[in-house]
Design a protein that fits this description.
The structure is a homohexamer of 320-residue chains.
Chain A (H helix, E strand, L loop, with lengths): L35 E6 L14 H9 L13 H4 L2 E6 L10 H15 L3 E6 L5 H9 L5 E6 L19 H7 L3 E11 L7 H9 L2 E4 H20 L3 E7 L21 H9 L5 E8 L10 H23 L4
Parallel strand pairs in A: 1-2, 1-3, 3-8, 4-5, 4-7, 5-6, 7-8
Chain lengths: 320, 320, 320, 320, 320, 320
């Protein structure tokens, strides 16, 4: 068995030191000794408004040096549970060649699945969740989905393409990757020019919790609703940073006021512990629009929360 | 009847495209085909501290490209209810000539009233609400006022003038434009050197809800109190962006910590639907002090909420 | 008796005018006519991550021009209760000479104590609270401590030193300056690599309220818990700006998401009125990482809240 | 003859007022009364590094309010020579559909040519110069090219496409749009991973003036060389803002140190007066990476210089 | 004789320490012991475009902590030649009362003249130079003027007033304060909508060196021309920071590309040593538009150069 | 012989992708296969003013992704000449323990010397050059020094220590590490409170070229003077980013106006090709004070120039 990559001697150095890997984990080229892989997907080619999420992985790595090991509420230490490493970024050769980049992402995650690595990905725009799911789920059974976002991302097409950051979960349902009955969308808000996306989500059977419902019922009931919706089956978690309020995440492409605080988001994520997560992502951090690293700090902190969820799920699995 | 200005083909273009008008509405020079006019008042000549609100209209236009048509909670689509256009900015020839600018604003709004246009204005500093009311109300009956702000703006004078951004509503009462008994001030907070402004508001019969009362009783009771105060008569809505907490609106001249979140502000505004609003404004967005467009994003989003209120009121009016 | 320093004619000038002293109080070189002294401690030589708090005093002075006299909730006017002045900064000659700077701070505060001045200090990193306490408490009885922070700052050592911004309150207990039984730490959160600091606080008898407990029980019960813990004895108040959420305080060295809003922090501080405070500090404002002066605005506003606490305590004291 | 669009009454308003059009010219939908059209091309889909030039047209419009009419050296007033209007942006429906956007740009400029409008375009990334030339030149004779840039943009392909911001002028030569013998590239610098682009430029017969030659020989000789190279024939001018030094243009995707000052760039452009320019563009202004509007101020000022060149050429033409 | 204010013990403290006075000089309320007074004029009420110069004095004070005593080229130490102090800011009570603020500035400088203090002022917008000259020159003989600026500031009126930042030197000539034959304007550039200001300067007999002439002839000949123009008589020096290129001074209201570098500006100023300067000012630093303190650093450094000029002139005067 | 680390397949990825190492070179833990090592020294514990250079190595790595392989003037490709790798950062355990950090740096570079690696270091404040020289030179013969800086850094002590960023080269002479007769300091400028540092440099025999001499004589003669001074012996190159003008390098601790442009700095460095450099460093990049990455872009570009110098020297050495 290969040496574990999770040698966190880097934790003893000042946080500003050394090349920034995700949460100061080692860079691993050999995936066989990795349980949970932290992966960058620097792609933002399909956004409707402000670009820049391609710079997300680097800045999330940079600010993730501030995270540490033991969770202050749950006392979970993911680095003791699983072998965790930074796997670098998805590599691209066909960024400008039609949908080539999406294929390259899907291929990467198919290999991740083969390597039995649980991926925690940093986008990139939300388009990337579709090829991630293609790679991870493949021909397997459709997975449950917990989707925290200001937007349902179930629109149909834009500017001549079915594949952009407002459509991934409609495509994922159509392609049998995600089970709409086991899907919950949390934090939806903001005006729309057409009701089409909202309608698709509802008509396909997804549970849509608009922000107002979340506020009215509180985070605890929201958690209960999420757990009820996805049940005990295999589930994917996708977190769009624009689910946070712009005061907590100004650095994103399509901000919507009236969103989550980080405190609420952390509480929400913590409440999902024990679900059978096969992976997760945090997307739409766009550093060129960030200020004071507010968004990247939030993104890195929430990635740590998701990492704890993935580690807990990993531990509970027979194969772990 | 002239062609409706609300041809929103611009909605199909990416949000970063084209010359930025308010909410991507058409620029209209012919006011006869306009029901609701979006107007910039780029004046900040009477602030006590940081200037820059003169740049507010442009930046609010810029960020308002992110708003869209259908409200996600109420499903109101103001663009289907009313003909909405950007009427450009109030034009000035006498900015440095005593109170000339205030006269020019008042003249502009008198013409707006004659044209039967409901105005939604973007300041500028809060001084502008006084000449707007002069133009809109004229010799008519004093209107009710819903005033969301950190400050009562009922001080008496400063630096040798009765007309500045801390005095408009005292003047408006004195001039018979606003009925203090039908006035509510919401979100007041922050220390003062003299109690004079607070006292004037209370003594004149205004209902003053300090921020602590709002927090203690909650947004729903605050809404009820506001509705009770203004009743069914004609009412004006003025929203000072410094009512928001500086985390949600750093770009303003006199920030006060402990303010509203955008979520609360949206809930508050939504709760006012059905009142007989004759116009509204959003003031004190000072882009030179903004970062990451946090303030302008909030301002544009809240202008959309106010637009929904004005459209709903417009629809309910016999003349609509 | 010397003329009172609290001649606030500066309050009549625009806030952007004149050399910025703390809250526009006069600069005093003669301490004999000062009851409460506002003091800068521009030292950040012992931080684990991002430096810059050395620039805190200047920027807090700058933004403190926005504060005013009368508290809008309590109607307390500290400037009428006590003679308040800006005493300038602690002066350094031994910044690079071992722990010389800490000795210089302690010496300064020993003189403050001798002059019967109640100090309200602006850091600087949290290391400075230790020498402040050394100077203030000296050989006297250990004081109670209300400590608002994201971190317990009771770690043992780092990078070869016992004295850095993660250790001051462990040292303060060891040196008999602070009574752990009369100490409460509020707002603690964020992952840690070792539980050592948390353990020390709990084992020494401190009351540790993690952020989640604060949220669950609410600010009012938190206040009650704090009052219960410190009782009626002499108490010091230390406020680390990173207790606020990074959206409300991005400009700090070790931000932790999920923190206080300014509204909560103000409510918490107000609730402590009547305790026998002998001094207070606000630390870890790091302007180079601030944006839109969000952090400095919060810091200056919270310093005003603390000033009200100190003035109220001063007034209640027989010697006042 | 239609009314002239160049009614510059807007010049009498403060520069921060009104909806920002290019240089405060009127927005024209009727092109028949326009001699020179100012056009935005908000496309940045093919950059190798930092995106954001899609936001260039809006910000260049915004800052162009600072430009005025009469050139202080030449006394040329382009607004008296020609009817100048803002034609808005190229409209897109196929942004995500292969090379659809490039086709839409080419179609737009073919219509510009048919309308006998001389275009001054604001990018967008440098890719857009290719479809602009396709539209403008069409099947006509290859034009001369003055190309000011840090990079030759004559690479062959990248990430699976022949069409990106490093290839437009190689394509333009291959497609017979540009005559390499009448092409000069000025300001080239910065390391490269392969010499391929440099080689293509030289081998195809272009005159390549690396920055060092420009500095050694001075701007006057550079002007002479440029005039000699393009001669009296029809010529296009393309100005990449990254030809400026990053101190003068930080807001661009691929900055290269050691570039032009604005003073040099203005002198260079002024020296080209009298050449038969059929159009020009200024590209690669990426506002998300700009600070203090340094780049947009430079871009707007240089667009004014180019406008003077186009107006002078327009005036000299028999058809004017 | 009172104790000299120039006790620069503050020089031994770190530059970030203490309340920031200009160049860390003592704050003096007793002018009788001051030879050269550093004065802030925080007024920007008459700008055509971007406001913010009211914040100039504070930020120039802040960054001036970086300047030191001995000039590295001339070895002049102004602090040994003259007693230098920070006199605080001009105080205002009539900011919003017509031209009251200008009167208050004039009154202040009349007292400065009476006190025999040589003033070095920090604006504020350029309007302030007129009342400064009114106070300093009074009924005395018109003085010579060296005016470094992008604009001649000899326009006639704007927005209903003769007094704004584009008119001070026309007024100063009309009022007999400045001798146009002994006036030189250096660095003029940028387009204008009307030639009126340029014409006035030339017609009144001023020597106008447009930027191009400065560049063509070089700084040394520019110095010679300036010395020739003003001769040996009493002369005032006014430096508008927008004479610098926006890369060196982005934080100003009306930036013009193609300006001076700081190196050129320093060389120019140094070359004026020995002229009989009776005072000087540096205006139009607008911190809200500054980034990275680039402008304030330049402004503070240039103020030091001007201080050396004033000290040298002071030393040469019989009264010194 | 071990496999070469200079596998630059990363060059084919977009520049924003992957973990940022210096110039996208591989991270090497085995130094035996490295000829030139790129090293971060994240230490800024001894600065007189603004801290932040500890963040320099990370940000220089980040922006160095924009550099490429072949020099556009010299056609040198350092990656073909030498095996180049990123060696990570110097590791610290004694940052707060007296001068422990300096010892740790010296130990690191002693090992670098033993490994026959030529170091190119990124600071960190200028203090680090002293322990680097201690490690590199050891007991060997004193080396020549080319020192580009605004300050001589030959002061004696500050705040109780002989070791800070204003003293390294005085110490280096005293310790026999640097030969003052073979030392040249280029670009010195800015006022000083005492002439002591200037005097030490001159009295010890160093050649000091103040900025004015550089400007008067031009870069070519400056190069000649530098070559003459250091001759053919072993030489170290140290480049303080504050030698650049603040417009080109705002992000540094003690900016001085009137500095180098990047164009001049590049020309200067290129002119030093062929000298026998044993290593070099670029220091004082302080990202918290940078804007638009102007400073880091300059720093990364200049590091590439220095790399070419080191590679050329490496190639010329018999041992290469």
């Amino acid at each position: 068995m290969p040496a574990p990559p999770t040698d966190l001697t880097s934790f003893s150095q000042p946080r500003y030191a050394e090349v920034p890997t995700f949460m100061r984990t080692p860079l691993a080229s050999d995936w066989s000794s990795v349980d949970i892989g932290l992966i960058g997907v620097p792609y933002d080619g399909r956004v409707t408004n402000r670009p820049g999420a391609r710079h997300g992985p680097r800045e999330l790595r940079n600010m993730s040096s501030l995270t540490r090991a033991i969770h202050h509420v749950t006392k979970v230490n993911p680095f003791e549970i699983a072998r965790i490493a930074d796997l670098g970024d998805v590599r691209f050769q066909r960024l400008f060649d039609g949908d080539g980049a999406l294929d390259e992402i899907a291929d990467f995650y198919a290999r991740i699945r083969e390597a039995n690595v649980v991926p925690l990905s940093a986008g990139g725009d939300h388009t990337v969740s579709l090829p991630i799911l293609r790679g991870l789920v493949g021909d397997g059974e459709a997975v449950g989905l917990i989707h925290v976002d200001a937007h349902t991302d179930t629109w149909d097409e834009f500017q001549g393409s079915k594949y952009m950051h407002g459509t991934p979960f409609r495509r994922a349902v159509e392609e049998g990757l995600v089970d709409p009955k086991r899907t919950i969308q949390i934090g939806i808000r903001g005006p729309q020019n057409h009701a089409e996306g909202w309608d698709y989500s509802l008509n396909s059977g997804m549970r849509v919790m608009f922000m107002e419902e979340v506020v009215d019922r509180g985070i605890r009931e929201t958690i209960a609703e999420a757990r009820r919706t996805v049940g005990s089956g295999r589930t994917y978690l996708t977190f769009d940073i624009d689910s946070l309020d712009p005061a907590f995440a100004p650095g994103t492409g399509t901000p919507e006021i009236g969103g989550f605080t980080t405190r609420e988001a952390m509480q929400l994520l913590r409440g999902l512990s024990g679900l059978d997560f096969i992976g997760g992502d945090l997307v739409e951090v766009a550093p060129p629009f960030d200020v004071g690293a507010i968004t990247a700090t939030a993104g890195a902190g929430l990635m740590y929360e998701i990492l704890c969820l993935l580690a807990t799920a990993f531990k509970a699995r027979p194969t772990a």
